[in-house]
Design goal:
heterodimer; A: mainly alpha; about 80% helix; flat; B: about 260 residues; alpha/beta; 6-stranded mixed sheet; 5-stranded antiparallel sheet; 7 helices; globular
């Protein structure tokens, strides 16, 4: 069955695709930064041993479960209706998408950070203590770089997925790439052209990200293990 | 001779297991003390207490006449800044525990730069000297210019890593060096090599050392004084040159096997 490709549509609508891509990237970057920051703090708290913080650790465990177990699509749709009730103000789709994507990511990051901290051999910390490093310095100079090194592969996988998950914001009417394609399809009836265009954009960006990731893994810093 | 460490009535344990009980010991400046004995007799615990890495449950420890830690009736008081104390009392462990994500040079300069506020260039120059002292090349040999690629711990052998660990401890200019089974993870020839470097370090720094080891012969060729511990007590305490007297001592016998090439 021959299909009559009309690539003119793409040329006509390219500014819309660019605008969609910009929103997709914004969603990705903001949620990665916020999700990582929240997740990092939660992960460090989860790794504490203090009895005083036990209730906090339980709360974080519940938080992680709620956000991690719910399908992301269900989470953001639910939030879209729930947040206005909770805070008694109107939220637009974009804001809800930012919050939902960030919180969901933070649950996974917290787990990765906790795992990374557990993997740091006790002896590295002892070696720092032995020469008289205060804990703050050990945290900054020894533990943190180790966390980065150990958790990087999982983090990058989460980040690349995060880019793909932003498509879910389309159900809230956020004009990211997928929603842009939907709109163009409705206006022009050229569904195959517009979806193919965004499929290619996603493939190229994820492909590039993977390439950078592979390069990074070859760096000395990430390979060392005594 | 001045006192370096004095332990009075020191008790240490983990849970219900008591490792040291009512332990007394005086170590003098300029001594090189080797503590030998079977595993689990509290030798390593003793060293870790001297460095304040381990807390005592009862007793007092003095360093150069100053009380550093005191424990009475279940209350433990550290009487000095423990980080300052640790920077004065260097310790090297059995496991080389260098930081794998830092270059050899950075492993050595980390303490001087971030704790002693030594300028990076000065610290690096010193690190290179120390590497030369322990005969480890911290750079890949292919490049002689300033851009030579730095080596990481994983690129070194076990013996070399342990020597870097020694260099790292020395870079802090400690007043005493505690060596916790530093040859136990190495084959005898490598252990003998470490011993050689310890002698060299002793010649250049005249630093007092307290070393814990399984190998009496190893200890003997470096130490000025030998302690033999059993079940948390010192059973033999002798100047190194008079060890022969104890060759028939029932507790020592099995530990006097010569360590191959290590025995000189």
């Amino acid at each position: 069955m021959a299909y009559d490709w009309q690539l003119g549509v793409l040329i006509q609508y390219w500014p819309a695709f660019v605008a969609g891509l910009v929103i997709t990237l914004k969603l990705t970057i903001v949620s990665i930064v916020a999700g990582t920051a929240i997740g990092y703090v939660l992960g460090v708290l989860l790794s504490t041993k203090s009895a005083y913080l036990k209730p906090v650790r339980y709360l974080i465990a519940i938080y992680s479960a709620l956000l991690g177990w719910l399908p992301l699509l269900v989470l953001i749709v639910w939030m879209y209706y729930f947040l206005p009730v909770l805070f008694n103000i109107k939220f637009d789709g974009l804001t809800v998408a930012y919050i939902g994507l960030s919180l969901n990511l933070s649950a996974f990051i917290a787990d990765v950070i906790r795992g990374a901290i557990q993997e740091i051999p006790r002896s590295y910390i002892d070696a720092g203590k032995a020469i008289g490093m205060p804990f703050s310095l050990i945290l900054r100079r020894i533990i943190f770089p180790e966390i980065v090194r150990i958790s990087l592969p999982s983090m990058v996988a989460l980040y690349i997925n995060q880019f793909k998950w932003t498509t879910l914001a389309s159900v809230l009417g956020v004009s990211e790439l997928l929603h842009t394609a939907d709109t163009i399809m409705i206006q022009t009836y050229r569904s195959l052209e517009s979806y193919t265009a965004i499929a290619i954009i996603y493939l190229v960006i994820v492909g590039l990200a993977n390439l950078i990731y592979v390069r990074m893994q070859r760096m000395q810093f990430f390979r060392q293990r005594a | 001779m001045n006192e370096l460490f004095r332990l009075e009535d020191v008790t240490v344990g983990y849970g219900t297991q008591v490792v040291l009980k009512g332990f007394n010991l005086v170590i003098y400046d300029r001594e090189r003390v080797a503590i030998c004995g079977p595993s689990g007799t509290g030798k390593s615990t003793l060293l870790r207490c001297l460095n304040l890495l381990e807390r005592i449950q009862r007793g007092t420890i003095y360093f150069r006449g100053t009380k550093i830690i005191e424990a009475r009736n279940g209350r433990v008081k550290v009487l000095v800044d423990e980080n300052v104390h640790r920077s004065r009392v260097g310790i090297v462990f059995q496991e080389f525990n260098l930081w794998p994500n830092k270059t050899i040079i950075k492993n050595i300069t980390e303490g001087p730069i971030y704790l002693k506020r030594v300028a990076r260039a000065t610290a690096t120059a010193r690190a290179k000297e120390l590497c030369a002292l322990v005969n480890v090349n911290p750079f890949h040999s292919s490049s002689e210019n300033g851009k030579s690629a730095a080596k990481y711990p994983s690129e070194l052998s076990g013996g070399q890593r342990q020597r870097v660990a020694l260099a790292r401890a020395l870079a802090m200019d400690p007043e005493v060096l505690l060596l916790d089974e530093i040859t136990s993870a190495l084959d005898p020839p490598l252990a003998a090599e470490i011993l050689r470097y310890l002698r060299k370090i002793n010649e250049s720094f005249h630093i007092p050392m307290i070393l814990v080891t399984h190998h009496v012969e190893f200890a003997r060729s470096l130490a000025t004084r030998l302690l033999f511990m059993k079940e948390g007590n010192v059973v033999v305490d002798t100047p190194a040159e008079k060890l022969d007297r104890y060759y028939d001592h029932v507790d020592l016998k099995e530990y006097l096997e010569p360590m191959g090439e290590g025995a000189e």
